[in-house]
Design brief:
By secondary structure, the protein is mainly α. It contains five helices and no strands. The chain is about 85% helix and about 0% strand. The N and C termini lie far apart (about 40 Å).
């Protein structure tokens, strides 16, 4: 168990550093865009990578469950948690559970924005 945690942590470290480097790179290339292109880039690349990893691990011959943990949970989790959110929603589509897709996405966006708002308001009080 400790070995798995350390490997996921190493993947998370690599993902976090990769996120920072990509974020800075995109900011340098597109400094004047009116929307957060760097965050969008990180989220889209992370979503592609996690989808790719899960496709390779479906057969369990190309990517082992342990390697999937390191890369998907560790690297992609450190790179962007949006990739996990996107994959979870894709799983609902894959299983034909569109109602859960709508509920989960709606709740995540509405409550996520509310949590940021209330966290911000709480921070202003203190």
């Amino acid at each position: 168990m400790l070995k798995t945690i350390l490997l996921i942590g190493a993947g998370g470290f690599a993902g976090t550093v990769a996120r920072y480097l990509l974020y800075r790179f995109v900011q340098l290339i597109f400094p004047l865009l009116i929307f957060p292109a760097a965050t969008l880039s990180v989220n889209l690349i992370g979503s592609f990578v996690i989808g790719f990893l899960y496709a390779l691990s479906d057969s369990q011959t190309l990517v082992s469950p342990e390697l999937r943990l390191i890369l998907a949970t560790g690297f992609c989790g450190g790179f962007t948690t949006f990739s996990a959110f996107a994959y979870e929603n894709f799983s609902f589509i894959k299983t034909g559970n569109v109602s859960l897709l709508i509920i989960y996405t709606g709740i995540s966006i509405i409550l996520g924005l509310a949590a940021v708002y209330f966290g911000y308001r709480f921070g202003k009080i203190i």
